[in-house]
Design goal:
The chain is α+β, with helices and mostly antiparallel strands. The chain has 15 helices and 21 strands.
Length: 489
């Protein structure tokens, strides 16, 4: 067993886009800090960050109707859409900065301009979309949004939506032209490329964390086992970040971290229908979202997307949900049972009864065959032929179950960072919008670890601590520069 002995270091568990983003941020601001990443798979970015393990949507609140829910007063709440859009702008600014600084970092390899469309049918849904549009259009972040009920224009925006449709009554759509499709796997690899050129960086692959124990001096002993050789090493970390996807909750439980008591994770598997038939792909140049299916969780809102992966275009429809006991796509079926503890079994049971419709939805989705999935697709694209589409298993999503002071036990949709009391350890849990807002999320982690370095951060992200929606002139200037550089305008 070998032990590292570095006074100023951080260990990041998990080699996905979140960990790599935090690592690069630290390296840009504090280049003297030793950065160690531990990844259990043969290389980074093979779990949720992998291109086809996620939808590749640059989540900005443009088309995702679940980000503008109707509140108890029957009013549309746009705050979530505004927050996510602000955070996504931060990601774009950071990627543009890296592109300009490093000659080998090529943002246009992982980000593609792809219009974002919301498409609905039925009087009630059309009314909702029009009200949503009226609220968002007033916001500087969304001023370029377009709305139409014109069938011919909708057909021009997304031909497959109307091809073979029997009824054209009560249809509406909104569109933002500067939406994005993002290959988060490629982004992860490019971030890794920056780190690999640094002397203060090391990566351990095929390596799994066995234990994390806090020392008397508030640092952490991390025992790591090589899955190929079965040999172990021990690292001592000043700061520790857990970004290992669904397994993070289990790691927190094994640590018996007080701040994580009562937390649990509920795994939801995902599947996509994929089409690479050239004549169909050529007819759909957008990401089209609609309203969530009845009984489905908000993160399962259906969408028909253009994807661009390694310069190859394909269509993706889904997600179709299911349940298996793995917390990672490449995990074990014993993961979920092992995560059930005395301190979280009550919240899990309460959430199960509160969300019984979700359980029924998952059962129904799991039992679907190829023909029934195609029927769901035909609600978008009426002429869809089952021979043109194949099924692909996506990544695992682990939704947060937690106790809330006023709401009791609840199922959370989104991401959250749990911190140890001494702010020396941070753990990322949850799912979408995840990778799209990685930079803003990891900036928060950086500040909690090291304190605010406002001047240094502003040199990288000029909009830091500004609300772009409240500063239209700054927004116009930053977007003009960033979007042009990234090919979005």
């Amino acid at each position: 067993m070998k032990k590292n002995n570095i006074d100023n270091n951080i260990v990041l568990v998990g080699g996905g886009v979140m960990s790599l983003t935090l690592a690069v941020l630290i390296n840009e601001i504090y280049p003297e800090i030793q950065i160690d990443i531990i990844e259990r798979l043969p290389s980074c970015g093979l779990e949720s960050s992998d291109a086809l393990n996620n939808a590749g949507t640059g989540h900005a609140g443009y088309c995702e109707l679940n980000y503008t829910p109707i509140n108890k007063s029957n009013q549309i709440n746009i705050n979530k859409a505004l927050e996510i859009n602000e955070n996504f702008e931060t990601s774009l600014i950071f990627w543009s900065y890296l592109d300009q600084k490093y000659s080998f970092f090529n943002a246009r390899k992982f980000i593609k301009k792809t219009p974002h469309i919301s498409f609905v049918s039925g009087l009630k849904n059309v009314s909702f979309l029009k009200k949503r549009y009226a609220l968002l259009k007033k916001q500087p972040l969304f001023k370029e949004m377009l709305l139409t009920e014109n069938v011919e224009l909708i057909a021009k925006w997304a031909p497959l939506l109307l091809k073979g449709r029997r009824s054209f009554d009560s249809l509406a759509a909104t569109k933002i032209d500067h939406g994005t499709d993002i290959n988060f796997g490629e982004l992860t690899n490019q971030l890794l490329g920056i780190l690999e050129k640094k002397d203060n960086f090391s990566l351990l692959v095929n390596s799994e964390v066995e234990t994390i124990k806090q020392r008397k001096d508030k640092r952490y002993n991390i025992l790591i086992r090589n899955l190929k050789t079965n040999k172990t090493i021990e690292m001592v970390s000043n700061y520790t970040f857990l970004g290992s996807g669904g397994k993070t909750i289990s790691m927190l439980q094994d640590m018996k971290l007080n701040e994580a008591k009562g937390y649990a994770g509920f795994p939801i598997s995902g599947k996509w229908l994929i089409c690479n038939k050239a004549d169909l792909v050529k007819m759909h140049n957008a990401k089209v979202y609609t309203q969530v299916m009845e009984g489905a969780p908000p993160m399962s809102i259906p969408h028909l997307d253009l994807r661009v992966i390694n310069n190859k275009k394909l269509l993706l429809f889904g997600p179709f949900a299911g349940f298996n006991a793995k917390l990672l796509k490449h995990g074990s079926f014993f993961d979920f049972p092992r995560s059930i503890k005395l301190n979280n079994i009550v919240p899990m049971t309460i959430v199960l009864f509160k969300n019984f419709s979700l359980l029924l939805y998952l059962i129904k989705q799991t039992l679907m065959n190829h023909a029934s999935r195609i029927k769901e697709l035909q609600k978008f694209y009426p002429e869809a032929n089952l021979r043109d589409w194949k099924l692909l298993t996506a990544g695992q999503r682990v939704q947060i179950i937690k106790n809330c002071p006023f709401e009791g036990s609840k199922l959370e949709f989104g991401t959250e960072v749990i911190y140890s009391k001494n702010r020396k350890l941070a753990a990322l849990i949850g799912a979408s919008p995840g990778a799209s807002v990685a930079v803003a999320s990891m900036l928060d982690v950086f500040v909690n670890f090291f304190g605010s370095e406002e001047k240094k951060i502003r040199d990288i992200i000029p909009s830091y601590k500004l609300k772009l929606n409240d500063n239209p002139s700054v927004l116009k200037k930053i977007r003009g520069k960033t979007y042009k550089y990234l090919g979005l305008w």
